Amino acid sequence: MDDTDIPWSATGLDPLAGRVLEHLVAVRSADRDEVASAAGVSPSEAERALRHLTDAALASRIGGAVPRWAAAPPRPSLGALLARRRAELARVENLVERLSEAHEAVSSARATDMVEVLLSRDEVPARYRQLLRGSSSEVLHLAKPPYVTGAAASAETAAVTPGVRMRSVYELDGFTDAVSLRTALRGTGQGGKLRLTSQIPVKLAIFDRGAALMPIWGDRPSSGSVVVHSPALVTALVALFESVWERAEPVSLTKRHDLPEPEPEPERGLPASGRDLRTREILRMMAAGMKDETIARILAVSRRTVQQHISDAGSLLGARTRFQLAVLAGKRGWLSEQGDSMPQPLPAR
Predict the structure, then answer these.
(1) Which residues, other chains included, contact 71 with Cβ-Cβ below 8 Å and sequence gap of 6+?
(2) Do 115-251 and 254-349 fold alike per CATH?
(3) Which residue has the higher pLDDT, 242 or 182?
(4) CATH architecture for residues 254-349
(5) What is the CATH T-level fold of the domain 115-251, as seen in this structure?
(6) What distance in Å separates the CA atoms of residue 314 and residue 292, rounded to the nearest whole number?
(7) Whole-angstrom distance, CA of residue 70 vs CA of residue 58
């Protein structure tokens, strides 16, 4: 049997004593020379191993002209040895705890207390849900692709405690999939605020400004995440979020039943206030760089409806291009949630 097959050191025996014991349990008894031959060592080395086994009560010496040794019954003898080793390890563990407490009492916070490393695919969504449920005042969220399917689905079903304010910024290129849209609708439906921007530096979630969750590698979110607890680092990440938030475009995900619009024809009979709000939404999204298909999906209307709103607004302002329309609408205050009222286009003939 190979020395590496059994960790004899865990019992307090060296590899040679372990080999000698394995030989003794397989024979009735053996003398020194027989043990040396079986173990492939010198007679003096075999004798030292036999004395070690005798002292540990794992073997006994049989008298005679030529001394012989026999193994003690392995289960009770080795069991007693292991019990003594476990007691010794328990005393060492207690010593380690006392030393650690003394060290922590005179040391500053350790790195392991400041950052948690999550490497399992299951750990990240589970920790996200835990942090989300534990939030009592505010959750800040920067979302960008690539998305982790499991984490996204978990985020979709995770509940936010009533009264917790949620602010989210989504990257435009990633705000076209169904999961992102449903998650954003869920957040805004609970009083959250949403903005869109062309580029987000890193995926990030900040909970009560006390902990932040972010990927270890920005381009490989499924390869692991970290939870940051360091007050200085969390403060810096909050500042990063606020800078992205300030530059992002506000979006109100008004649902279809809030501003009803018949499909596929664009509405003509809405009250001025309803049409005004819907056109403002579309113009803000257009100015932020969103495509007609994306705007239509977010607002749950047809692409034709979106294009009709844009065309009507362009006609009112005399804009020949979308760029001109965005500039002129901004000057009129139409891109803000509260601004100048918008005159209504003439009915179609």
Answers:
(1) 21, 24, 25, 53, 58, 59
(2) no
(3) 242
(4) Orthogonal Bundle (1.10)
(5) Endonuclease; Chain A (3.30.870)
(6) 15
(7) 9
Decide: residue 215, CB within 10 A, 0-12 exposed, 13-18 middle, 19+ buried: buried
β-pair partners for 148 = none
User: What's this model's pTM, rounded to 2 decimal places?
Assistant: 0.48
Q: Please work out, in degrees rounded to the nearest 5, the angle formed at the alpha carbon of residue 251 by the alpha carbons of 250 and 257.
A: 150
Q: Which fold has domain 1-107?
A: Arc Repressor Mutant, subunit A (1.10.10)
Estimate to the nearest angstrom the gap between the alpha carbon of 295 and the chain centroid: 30
Q: How far apart are CA 334 and CA 326, in angstroms?
A: 9
- Convert the pLDDT of each residue in 199-210 to its tens digit: 889 999 999 999
29-51 core/surface letters (b: 16 or more CB in 10 A; e: else):
bbbbebbbebbebeeebbbebbe
Domain assignments of the chain as residue spans, ordered by start:
1-107, 115-251, 254-349
Tokens 């984490």 — which residue? 151
